[in-house]
């Protein structure tokens, strides 16, 4: 009963409210997913929702540009790039007369809640509009355009912003809508160019977008292992021309067949003079005589379908934006909805705009160190890691330590990137670095050899596992593993893999009492498409797998657009873990996603069939249902197909698709490349510290719980969790952590698919402040 009341309360939370959504400024992939989420969540809480076409121009022009939306207005748009409601740069809105007309148009429709999706310019404009609102209404009353009563009734304008900008140049937000998709486009181009450059031994200068912000250039350089990078925040030292040419020549003489130089369009030198891609090309040709080509990526970066990350991010932010409008009072400042780690937060709009302006000011005044710090800790981290890994600097001194690296479990995209960065940081630290082929089995059989800096060149963008991987657990060959550890004097072990990697290290730790040789430092980097390892929110490879599954579902949905009234039942991987099917479900707008973690009965299945039957009566005559491979012992994919087919007889027909191993393959996404690279670096730095701590009289002896950990991203920061602690929160039978953060995403999946659900579970984002101090906090990404 209480549940029904709660539901009623929420369904009427927005009753009588009217809200409008507009997209403004440069377009970004994922804007449509945001428009869809705002529209549906608005209707869900009982508000009237209006779409404003052509950005602020439509707001000023009014008329046909402002239309009320219904649930189906935003159907089948989540996979489209750009913005279906259009965006325009608008001169009129920058004038008071323009804003006066805009205010009049909003009042005519009774709209006092505005959700603006755009860059910092668009959001600043929205804030000015809000501060002037009272005086604009007074003017309208004076001019006799509206009555005093109307002005009283609509006396307050609430504003919430979502940042849509591929540059990721808005301070305070981890990721802006469109950034991840733009990185996808850039990495696709780099991967393609790499193959042709290697054939001809060419040098490529790639120019990416970012007039004032080097984020895209920086992350794509980090994710592709580029030889040289130019970003506006950190101009090269004087005399960089000599240094760059020297380094490119050196790379070639070591046997590399290509060079890649990445340059942000806003690149400058120490004196603020622009550095153009053609200038760089001419330099290389004149000094080194290399065959050099320039590729300017341009608007390709804004185009194409949004990535899974952008679709989920935009949906979460859209939902949160509506809640922020529902909860707004005259005293709350205009806010921006953002993600911090994987938590929604609200930030005061003007604080973000202020810091964003401070960065530009610091750059104009040539305070470059400060500009990088103001961009936030993760930007600074990316920059430092790029510099560490791009070029080998001889180690200060040889360290006495040895490190062995292996892959365990099923292949996952990103494993190779993690091995590469771990090997290189190990060498930087002066350690002897070994790699092991074929997992714990290879370790037992002594398939182990020392590697150098250049042995891992070109590994970043490769899918699967170059070292080879096996599912064998140590307990089947413990004696032989101990023998190898003794023979090679291995003092630290980095295991990159899935649930078996975690379980394997746990077995080694539990055998420490028996074998002193296992009293060494151990670290697990979780890498599995299932995302089922305890101690982390994201495992390497899961982003790539979600994108692969999503692309397949997009195509499956498209195939149904010709045939009416068809329901697809799609089976995803993931073992018992429903992460893959839930997140893919959100990204493709699925009608349901069945997972083991949320038990379902025949009644639930019946409700789903009825829901689809109702849907077939509307204009949208297709359905998509996802099923995790192990979600139910008896309700198999075949069973669901038979049930849906017979229940839907005469109303819709069914088809099955089992996605299978395409979810394990493919080149890693930018997120997985970047994340793997960082975890590889952080893991080895942590292991080096621990080795120092336990080094006594020329030997390593580690038996404390905190000397064998899983590294992972937890909420907002990278954390190390002892495997013995994690054992207490693991369900070993189903190979799952007992608590999983992503289960709260399922509310969003159901709401967006038009199920009546209670949002009592929904956790609203907190208002946080953006200052220089908060920007210096270490974020995981």
Automatic annotation (TrEMBL):
Ranges where the Phosphofructokinase domain occurs: 19-324, 403-686
> Where in or outside the cell is it found?
Cytoplasm
Provide the cofactor list for this protein: Mg(2+)
Q: Which residues bind ATP?
A: 26, 89-90, 119-122
Annotated substrate binding lies at 165-167, 202, 209-211, 265, 293, 299-302
* Keyword NAD in annotation: no
Q: Which principal EC class is assigned to this enzyme?
A: transferase
**A GO molecular-function descriptor:** 6-phosphofructokinase activity
Activity regulation here?
Allosterically activated by ADP, AMP, or fructose 2,6-bisphosphate, and allosterically inhibited by ATP or citrate.
Its UniProt pathway annotation is: Carbohydrate degradation; glycolysis; D-glyceraldehyde 3-phosphate and glycerone phosphate from D-glucose: step 3/4
Q: Name one GO cellular component term.
A: 6-phosphofructokinase complex
Complexes and interactors: Homo- and heterotetramers.
This chain belongs to which protein, by name?
ATP-dependent 6-phosphofructokinase
Species name: Crocodylus porosus (Saltwater crocodile)
Q: What is the lineage of its organism?
A: Eukaryota, Metazoa, Chordata, Craniata, Vertebrata
Which gene underlies this protein? PFKL
